[in-house]
Amino acid sequence: MNIQSKKWQMPRRTFLRGLGVSVSLPLLEAMSPAARAAAAGAAPRRMAYVYVPNGKNMEDWTPQRTGANYDLPAILQPLKPVQGDVSVLTGLAHAKARSNGDGPGDHARANATFLTGVQAKKTAGADIRLGISVDQIAAAAVGRQTRLPSLELSCDKGRQAGACDSGYSCIYQFNISWKSESTPMPPEANPRMVFERLFGSGGAEAAEARVRRLLYNKSILDFVLDDAKKLRGDLGVTDQRKLDEYMASVREMEIQIAQSEKFVATQPKPNIAQPAGIPADYAQHIRMMYDLMALGFQTDLTRVSTFMVAHDGSNRSYPQINVPEGHHDLSHHGNDPAKKAKIAQINLFHMTQFAYFVGKLKSMKEGAGSVLDNCMIVYGSGIADGNRHAHHDLPVLLAGGGGGTLKPGRHVRYDSLTPMTNLYLSLLDRLGVQAARLGNSTGRVGQLA
């Protein structure tokens, strides 16, 4: 049935529904008002922040040339296929991550300050105080337009109490998203729980459906199959293909999660500390979280997300890339060339996963372009050189086109000590969110378009 001949239209907020399941759809041609808006460059804009810990080997990170067609140092080599979609921003700083009279605790402050620009109150008790983060300012303004106001992810199991770094509460070190000065938004590390949050309807019916799926090894798509078949019959050929591709990607995500859960459950448990998060393979875990974030953006279930790949101070080892030493221990390299080379290997590992995410978003068609064209994704750390705990000239990437408001594919060098919160205000502007100030901001940054 050709939808154009029937002038049939469907609302952007169309879901496939079943018992306890609500599966949103990507942008289809049949959603003609939304499709026209997308063609005019008015597709929804999304904002994401990705945090990686313990700084970088900055010698292998910072490009020598500024402007377009910048050189790709060793750590940035995985970005080559998407270099035109990513800018390197140099010179940004988080002054509130410095001690400023509070003594040691740079890792806790790096996490806490990253999206807030606020000095964390040094306490290991319940009297925490920080500030609202940029993602939650965005979520408060645009979150009502989507099913999930924001999506918080991590590969670390969170710690919301106790003392961690030099007298700072663990709550600072395991959260980068803050709804208020005393209310963090704890991230979810379990891909299954993220999947259920995206596609489950919630309530008792959703719980019953999940039990049935697990008991009978059913896909979430099995519960919406009748609805999908009815819809497919009303779609044109192009939309049928897009629907099939989308449902295949959802099913693939389910299979990956189920396989990882099965592997973890059947593995013998050695008498050593187990790594945080599932699945056991860290690269797979990271990519699952990126895939889930991408699905959330593609289906417009959320337009705001944060992903803490690991908390600052993480001492995770990386045997899969022949680095058995702990990340944090190596970051205090004392300029030992061998240790710095291993830090660069870890940095390269993380960059490889991020390049995968950027490529994934670029492959998702939306209107005349891609989902990536309508994203603003900040990737970075609250520490530059981990050996010195430097909080200036931070390693920062900005990916995506921001709905035509960004000009990616460049190396931009700002004046040293430019507050990173100035960048955040500039991105909020492009999301249509008005904010006079954020943390220690002093204005906006230029050279983004």
What does this structure look like?
Helices cover 35% and strands 15% of the residues. By secondary structure, it is α/β, with parallel strands linked by helices. The chain has a domain at 41-189 and 276-430: 3-Layer(aba) Sandwich (Alkaline Phosphatase, subunit A). Strands 4-16-5-15-14-3-9-6 form an eight-stranded mixed sheet, sandwiched between helices. A two-stranded antiparallel ribbon has the order 1-2. Strands 7-8 form a two-stranded antiparallel sheet. β7 and β8 form a beta hairpin. α6 (191-199) packs parallel to α10 (282-298), α9 runs antiparallel to α10 and α10 (282-298) packs parallel to α12. The longest helix has 30 residues, at 237-266. The chain is globular and about 65 Å long. It starts with a helix and ends in a 19-residue tail after the last helix. The model is unreliable at 1-7 and 264-277 (pLDDT under 50).
